[in-house]
From TrEMBL:
SUPFAM superfamilies: Nitrite and sulphite reductase 4Fe-4S domain-like, Nitrite/Sulfite reductase N-terminal domain-like. This is Precorrin-3B synthase. The lineage of its organism: Bacteria, Pseudomonadati, Pseudomonadota, Alphaproteobacteria, Hyphomicrobiales. Residues 19-82 form the Nitrite/Sulfite reductase ferredoxin-like domain. Pfam families: NIR_SIR_ferr (PF03460). Keywords: 4Fe-4S, Heme, Iron, Iron-sulfur, Metal-binding, Oxidoreductase.
Length: 398
């Protein structure tokens, strides 16, 4: 009998309850606060000792350890806690990796996120495990691209609320936490598999706006910038955003980066939405030096790098469900992209990118399925033998 608790259907993998995947057990964590460099180096060690040596940053900016086994997964939560890494105990609310440090932000989202997290804690057992709330303070790193049951965004002249991506209305800052918690209560009342799309459809956006006394929605501005690159901070320092190819980094490489960051004077590191790591506390010249070193270690240091537009899951041979060697395929297809998004998925599950991509290649028993403007679960426009993929795409994408 396994010593690992079985993950509930629809639940998210966590440290105490990892999820079975094709390449072993996967554990996910969302640190409560930025990590110091020793803490991330410690996580890299845990990934190497207990997993397959790969650490991931997801599209939502969460950390994942892969390839854990029934023998190594128990005790992982305690090992992470021993590094001094705290994970949210209440309802998890997402904020950007530069929250509170971005001089171009409209407000610091952390106090509001904390109030929502604390206030919604009793609702956690009654909500769908994937229920999500984001608080976007504006500025360079925006969270508008993330799917969320409720999004609170800094808008022109107020805070804008959206339900499942549909603008609901504007709310005063002092009422924002109470309104979000009341909306979550409304969601919980519909049962623990309900999501906000159902509430919005059943109750209607306009009636909800009137009931909660909200003003018409306010514009929330642009989508922000890619986290990869240099970002000025309120204290005069700089943050360096580094992209991870396919959202993955090997533990040994991460340990080298932490050493280099320490020598460059860095103090903190934070996983960022968009499969990136944000190194914080750097002087501008040191950040440039570190950027060059990180490029040498294989990190993506330019937001325009075409690999930023490629999503690929673990694939063959890492995942038993995979029909494609996703990473090898990506390397051959990147030169053909010409600015388009490409998602290569070893099977229809689509672990790497739940959203649509300009082109999706999905591994099927019959060959490689090609889906245009869709996801791996969509019916492919056609299926081609894997050996003919490059030649086919060369013609199609020309
Ligand atoms: S999408 Fe990729 S990683 Fe996920 S189960 Fe399928 S092959 Fe495995």
């Amino acid at each position: 009998m396994s010593a690992i608790p079985t993950m509930r259907r629809g639940a998210c993998p966590s440290l105490p309850e990892p999820m079975q995947t094709g390449d072993g057990l996967l554990a996910r964590l969302q640190p409560l606060a930025p990590l110091n460099l020793d803490q991330l180096a410690g996580l890299a060690l845990l990934a190497a000792d207990r997993g397959n040596g790969i650490l991931e940053v997801t599209a939502r900016g969460k950390l994942q350890l892969r390839g854990l086994t029934p023998a190594t997964a128990p005790g992982l939560a305690e090992a992470v806690a021993a590094l001094g890494i705290a994970v949210p105990q209440g309802f998890p609310v997402e904020v950007s990796a530069l929250a509170g440090q971005d001089p171009s932000a409209r407000f610091d989202p952390r106090p509001l996120a904390r109030s929502i997290s604390d206030g919604a804690a009793p609702l956690v057992p009654h909500l769908a495990p994937k229920t999500s709330v984001v608080v976007d303070g504006g500025g360079r790193l925006r969270l508008g691209g993330l799917k969320a049951d409720i999004a609170v965004s800094a808008g022109e002249g107020g805070l804008s609320l959206a339900l499942a991506g549909v603008p609901l209305g504007a709310v005063e800052a002092e009422r924002a936490a109470a309104v979000v918690i009341a909306l979550l209560q409304r969601l919980a009342a519909r049962g623990m598999s309900a999501r906000m799309t159902e509430v919005a459809a059943a109750e209607g956006i306009a009636p909800l706006r009137a009931e909660f006394g909200l003003a018409p929605p306010v514009p929330v501005g642009d989508a922000g910038v890619d986290p990869v690159g240099l970002h000025p901070l309120t204290d005069g320092g700089v943050a360096l955003g580094l992209g991870l190819e396919f959202g993955q980094v090997r533990a040994a490489v991460l340990a080298k980066l932490m050493d280099a960051a320490r020598r460059a004077g860095g103090t903190e590191v934070e996983p960022a939405a968009g499969r990136a790591l944000m190194l914080i506390g750097l002087a501008p010249e040191a950040a440039e030096t570190l950027r060059a070193m990180a490029a040498g270690l294989g990190f993506l240091t330019d937001a325009n790098d075409p690999r930023r537009r490629v999503f690929a899951c673990a694939g063959r041979p890492a995942c038993a469900s995979a029909r494609l060697d996703t990473h090898a395929l990506a390397a051959t297809l990147v030169p053909l992209l010409d600015g388009r998004d490409l998602h290569i998925s070893g099977c229809p599950k689509g672990c790497a990118h739940p959203a649509k991509a300009a082109l999706t290649i999905v591994g099927l028993d019959e060959g490689a399925g090609l889906v245009v403007e869709g996801t791996p679960r969509d019916v492919p426009a056609r299926i081609v033998p894997v050996a003919q993929l490059r030649e086919t795409l060369q013609k199609d994408l020309a």
